[in-house]
TrEMBL record:
Organism: Actinoplanes ianthinogenes
Protein name (Swiss-Prot/TrEMBL): Sulfotransferase family protein
InterPro entries in alphabetical order: P-loop_NTPase
Domain of life: Bacteria
């Protein structure tokens, strides 16, 4: 019977990709040490969409939350389930998830980050998930208390939805270290909660989830708008747009024009931050890090993607086309090398058989 299950529910843009990369890269090592990541990364994602009953669940998805819970229950040690999409679950969905993992000792892990960095990152993540809404509309909706998709992924609400389902001592809030902190610090905080010994896991040099510049993300937003109903499911969009355009091309581009929140919203962000910190101070949970790290630092004026000119978008598009040509050429060369390697292998096997 499973001893403990750690459910890492996000939020997006709080180092989740980095943490998950470490976990999945070291899956076999962790398993030998007694900690299981059940199923696969993709299957855990499918289980999340099943639990949340989302309209955008891929039609070919086969894994359900109950299948994931059943596999977890067979492991005699500790289990880690990690998917930042889980943070968007309703109270009822979170309760169902925790019940399905009983009688294991369920722990909930939430990661929080300062709003000044989170809001631009969250909007960018929305665009990378096919959104066509502008940055200004995104911010304006949040100012009005709208956009549950955002609020449900804040540390405060995730703790209310998920943390309330377990005893206070099993609620863990990890704060993202401030800019300039050692790369490994976030992992050390996560590993400390789960009980992974120092030095057990191999740590990649840096996060793979790099941000796009203002011109590049505006180009992608306009592309989403033109795509219309094409690639309506997550898997297709990720395969054709993220895998072949965003990852190998746009992320490798110039990305010189950084974007963020304008200073005209600084007072609002600071006031909202103090409200969030006060609420978290009163919420019974274990804080790993410091709530002070939720306060923004280094506020400065930046450009908005809405301010990017057509000329800048055109330049980014031309650079993307050049990148696509280079990327396609690289794919062609690799394909040719693979063919040659297979032919050589086949010839070597035939020669070996003749000698016998």
């Amino acid at each position: 019977m499973t001893r403990r299950v750690f459910v890492h529910v996000g939020a997006p843009k709080t180092g989740s990709t980095f943490i998950q990369n470490v976990l999945w890269k070291n899956r076999d090592t962790l398993k030998r040490a007694g900690t299981l990541l059940p199923a696969t990364r993709g299957q855990q994602d499918q289980a999340m969409t099943d639990l949340r009953e989302v309209s955008w669940r891929d039609k070919d998805a086969t894994w359900t939350w109950d299948m994931l819970a059943e596999q977890a229950a067979k492991w005699p040690g500790d289990v880690i389930i990690t998917n930042e999409g889980l943070g968007g679950a309703t109270v009822a969905q979170a309760a169902r998830a925790v019940r399905s993992l009983a009688p294991a000792e369920v722990h909930v892990i939430v990661v929080g980050r300062d709003l000044w960095r989170t809001l631009p990152s969250m909007w960018q993540e929305n665009v990378k998930s096919r959104s066509i809404g502008s940055f200004e509309n995104f911010l304006s909706a949040i100012e009005r208390g709208k956009n549950d998709a955002f609020w449900n992924h804040t540390a405060n609400r995730m703790l209310r939805h998920w943390g309330d389902q377990v005893p206070p001592e099993r609620r863990h809030l990890i704060t993202v270290p401030p800019p300039g902190s050692p790369h490994i610090l976030l992992w050390e905080r996560f590993a400390g909660v789960v009980g992974i010994p120092d030095g057990l896991c191999e740590i990649p040099g840096e996060s793979a989830n790099a941000s796009l510049g203002a011109a590049e993300i505006e180009l992608l937003r306009r592309l989403n708008r033109q795509l219309g109903d094409r690639f309506p499911y997550r898997t297709a969009y990720r395969k054709y747009v993220l895998q072949h355009l965003v990852g190998p091309v746009l992320k490798q581009g110039r990305n010189e024009l950084r974007f963020g929140i304008g200073m005209d919203r600084a007072d609002w962000i600071l006031a909202l931050t103090e409200e969030r910190i006060k609420e978290l101070q009163e919420y019974p949970c274990t804080v790993v890090g410091d709530l002070d790290e939720l306060r923004p630092v280094g506020l400065r004026e930046t450009v908005s993607p809405d301010e990017v000119t057509d000329e800048q978008v055109l330049e980014a598009a031309i650079e993307a086309l050049i990148g696509m040509i280079e990327y396609s050429d690289g794919l062609h060369e690799r394909a040719n090398r693979d063919i040659v390697t297979r032919i050589k292998g086949r010839v070597a096997r035939q020669v070996g058989l003749k000698r016998q």
